[in-house]
Every structure is written in C-alpha cells, then in structure tokens.
Design a protein that fits this description.
The protein has helices at about 40-45, 60, 70-75, 75-90, 90-100, 125-135, 215, 230-235, 310-320, 350; strands spanning about 20-25, 30-35, 40, 100-105, 110, 120, 155, 160-165, 170, 170-175, 180-185, 190, 195-200, 220-225, 230, 250, 255-260, 265, 285, 290-295, 300, 330-335, 360, 365, 375-385, 390-400. It is of the alpha+beta class. The strands form six sheets. Strands 1, 2, 3, 4, 5, 6, 7, 8, 13, 14, 16, 17 and 22 form a 13-stranded mixed β-sheet that branches. The protein has a five-stranded mixed β-sheet with strand order 9-26-25-20-21, with no helix packed on it. The longest helix has 15 residues, at about 75-90. It binds calcium ion (CA). Calcium ion binds near residues 121, 192, 194 and 336.
C-alpha cells in the first residue's frame, strides 16, 4: 500500500493480537495476519526472508492458501512465528520493509483459514444444559446423569464448517407439524453462540493429552455459530444425539486468534462438584471472553465464557482420553455459552423458551426463530495486554430460504 510504516495504525486489530487467516486479493488467496486496518501477506514476508529463523521452511509453510502446514508444525513454530511478527510490528524500519506485502483489510475477501479435519462439539455450559433439559424434557432431571462426570460432546460434520460471511441455507428435514410429521424446511432455525479451538500437531494412537498439555496442541480460538434446526433436532436426537439438525452448517471466524494472545484472559475456572476423574485434572484455565449475539441488527444477548463449567483443556483431555488421535486442523467447540440470566442466553431456544415467548428486537419486530434474510453476528473480546481489550474475529452469516 503506502510506503512507510503508518499502515500499522488502525483500530480493527491491536498489534498484540496478530490473528492468522487466509485472505483473497489480486485474484489469489494467501495466509495472512492482521494489524490495525491492514493485512500482511505471510507468503510475501517469507519470500523476502523476513520470517527466516522464526520457524522451519517459512516459504513452504505459507505456499498454499491454507494454514494447514503451520498447524501441522506445532507449538515451537507457532511461538517462533508470533515472536517474529511481534518484533516486526514494533520496529518502524521493519514496518517499512513489510509495506510492499500489506493490503487494506477492506480490500480482501476472507477464505476458510484451514482444512477442518475432525469437528467435535461439546455441551459444557451448566446454564445452557439445564435450560435445554427443562425445555426438551420437562419434568425430568434436566442434566443427564453423566453431565457433571465428563464433558459431554458429539462428533459433528467437518465438511460443512464455513467461513464467516457465507450464507446459510435453511435446512430441510423431518419435523413435527399440525398433522404429525412431515419433510420440509425447518420452522425452528436457531443459532448457538460458541467458542471454538483449533488444534495443531499430531498425537499417536493410544496417547492421551492431559489438560496440562492444552497449549501444546491448541493453536488458537475462533468464534463459532452452531446453526441448529430445533424441530429436526428434537425429533431425531434420541438415542444417538444431534445429526441432521446440526450438520448442514457451522460458521467460524475468518481469523484465528492465537492462544498466546489470550494469556491476559486466563482466569480460574468455576468449582467442579463432584471432583472430576483424574484424567480431567488439574482443570486448567478458563478464558474471560465477553461474547455478544446480534440478530437482524439487534444485540439480543451477552454471554460470558469464563463461567463455562468444563474448561477447554478438560474438553481436549476428554476427547483424547480413549486414545483417539488428534490431527492438525481438528476443531472443537465449547457448546452454547449461556449464563444465569436471560440476557446471557446464547441461543433462541433459551431466549424464547422453546418458541413459547417472543423475543423483541427493539424496533417493534420480534422473533421466536430465525427468519429468511436474518443476519446473525457473534462478536467477542478479551482482556488484552496493558489493560486494553483484544477483539476476537466476529462470525456472521445470513439465512437464505430453503431449496425446493
Ligand atoms: Ca452446539
């Protein structure tokens, strides 16, 4: 863009975040980081030697339009890259040398940043699980028996994970209607506010990852919208859990915020009673992330991630506790993040209590479930270095009508 170093100034991304993503400009997609209101082409930096010594084979690592090779390289490479980028963006001379590889954020189109390998979704918010139990199984104990013994989860569909900004087509399925059950467009399309963790490196069969090794295997954090067709889900889910009510689409942020950037957000996790199994201890850190759900231009809730019952480290430990391998690009998500009050509920199922209560959007309109044309956006932020706030990359998507 501009010669010189002024491109580093800008409000969108503080220089301590250094999120990684893949963006398209000049007809080509390439790995990048974001600083201020600009993106920096990592393949470009590698090609002129600015990443030499920071990680092995920098040119090769950034030669494809995915972060896959970086995820595979593991924590030493992640740390080396972040350290070098921090040096470069705090050095005016380096900033000038980077300027040929810098493009305005507004001029690029985000792509899905990595190849999602396996996708797992958990169910780790106590308030969410309790509310859903009350709505789906009134009169029964809302929490399944195992809920406090282990982080409950299921394997989702990696191939339908899509980057923020991608339209979501209303799914069809078998769902109850006035005459019984029929096949058609979901009448109860919903969102779920979640936090996702992007895995790198490998494990070998039989290897278990203890919670203490979390940072060796998790590269960074994205926001996730686990779109859900509640009518399809409610009819199909027993006894094997979510299937077609969830698998049609899962949206993720365009930028992955490295775990290292979230150091200032680490807080003590909630108390767990009963004491979890040894393979889930010590619990590790919770992350103090403030989330925000916006539907059709109106903020409808502000869930807080810090209170989530099971930590991300325990989720990863449980996911590998049977000896199942990890591979680079695995994604796992927290489950819907909800808090104790109505203003902290992370999905319409809870906000409208199963469709019973209309949710006012503040402009005279109201929703029970999503309508065609609705844009849903999830935002988040965390405590940053020096008392500032660190943004997470938003995840947004517009609902399009079902195909007939
Ligand atoms: Ca979910």
């Amino acid at each position: 863009v501009t010669a010189g170093s002024s491109w580093i100034e800008g409000d969108a991304w503080p220089s301590t975040a250094l999120p990684l993503g893949v963006v398209e400009f000049d007809g080509r997609a390439r790995p990048a980081t974001a600083v201020g209101d600009h993106v920096v082409d990592l393949a470009g930096l590698a090609s002129v030697g600015l990443l030499d010594g920071a990680l092995d084979d920098p040119v090769e690592r950034f030669s494809t339009p995915r972060l896959d090779a970086l995820l595979a390289a593991g924590p030493t490479a992640w740390h080396g890259l972040r350290g070098r980028l921090l040096e470069l963006v705090t050095d005016r001379g380096a900033a000038r040398r980077m300027s040929p590889h810098v493009v305005p954020l507004a001029a690029v189109r985000p792509r899905l940043a990595w190849t999602v390998a396996d996708y797992v979704d958990f169910y780790s918010s106590l308030d969410h699980a309790t509310n859903v139990g009350r709505i789906f199984r009134p009169g029964e104990d809302p929490l399944p028996e195992a809920w406090r013994q282990l982080p409950i989860g299921y394997h989702g569909r990696a191939g339908t994970v899509m980057v923020s900004g991608t339209d979501v087509i209303r799914p069809c399925g078998l769902r109850p209607d006035r005459d019984g059950v029929s096949f058609g467009p979901s009448l109860q399309l919903d969102v779920e506010v979640e936090v996702g963790f992007v895995v790198g490196g490998h494990t070998s069969p039989g290897e278990r990852v203890p919670p203490s090794a979390f940072a060796d295997h998790v590269f960074g954090v994205v926001l996730v919208n686990d779109w859900s067709a509640r009518d399809v889900q409610a009819f199909e889910y027993r006894p094997l859990g979510p299937f077609l009510g969830k698998s049609f689409a899962t949206s993720v942020s365009a930028w992955i915020v490295p775990l290292e950037a979230l150091e200032p957000a680490r807080v003590a996790p909630p108390t767990q009673d009963p004491r979890p199994s040894a393979h889930l201890l010590p619990a590790g850190d919770a992350y103090d992330l403030d989330l925000e759900l916006e539907i059709a231009g109106h903020v409808v809730s502000r869930p807080r991630f810090a209170g989530t019952y099971w930590t991300a480290a325990q989720q990863l430990a449980h996911l590998t506790s049977n000896g199942a391998t990890l591979r680079p690009g695995d994604l796992y998500a927290s489950g819907t993040v909800s808090g104790a009050t109505a203003a902290e509920r992370g999905c319409l199922l809870e906000l409208t209590w199963g469709g019973r209560d209309e949710l006012s959007l503040g402009d005279g309109s109201a929703r029970t479930w999503l309508e065609d044309g609705d844009v849903v956006t999830i935002r988040g932020s965390a405590p940053g270095a020096g008392g500032g706030r660190l943004p997470l990359a938003e995840v947004t998507g517009r609902v399009q009508p079902a195909h007939h």
